[in-house]
Amino acid sequence: MSAERKPTAVRQLRLVVEAEDYEAAVAFYRDVLGLPEQAAFSGGDGAEVVILEAGRATLEIANPAQKRMIDDVEVGRQVAPKFRVAFEVDDTRETTDRLLSAGADEVAPPTVTPWQSLNARLDAPGGLHITVFQELKSLEERETLDGFGTGS
After folding, report:
1. Mean pLDDT of the chain
2. In terms of DSSP H, where are the helices of 11-74?
C-alpha cells in the first residue's frame, strides 16, 4: 500500500475581474493603487487582459455573522456583496484619497477596527467592493487582543 499523498500546494491566488471599462480599471488598479504589471496579453476580437501583482495573497473565509460584524465595524451597516477584495497598504488615508480622486466611490471613511487596523471601504472600477487597510499593530500585538487568534 502506498503512502498517502498530500495535495499539491497552491502556488498563486488569482482573482479574475471582468471590467466593462477595461482601460479605466487598469489605470485605477495599476497606476493609482500601484499594483505592478506582471504580464499583459491581447487576442483576436479586441480581447485584452493584464495580470497585476498584488503582493501576498490570502483567502479570507468568514461566516455570515463575521461578515455582518465587519460591515458594522467598517461601515455601520450591511453593504458588502458576497465578495469583497481587501488590499493592505502603507497609509490608508493617503491611499483612500488617491483612489477617490481616481474615481472610486467612498462607502465608509478610514475607521480604526477592534483588530487594530485602519480600514476604508470603497466601490471601485470593475464592479469591485474593496477595503484598503493598514495594520496599526504587529501580528504579535494583535494576537493578544480579545477574539484574535488562530482557528483549530
Report:
1. 91
2. 22-26, 64-74
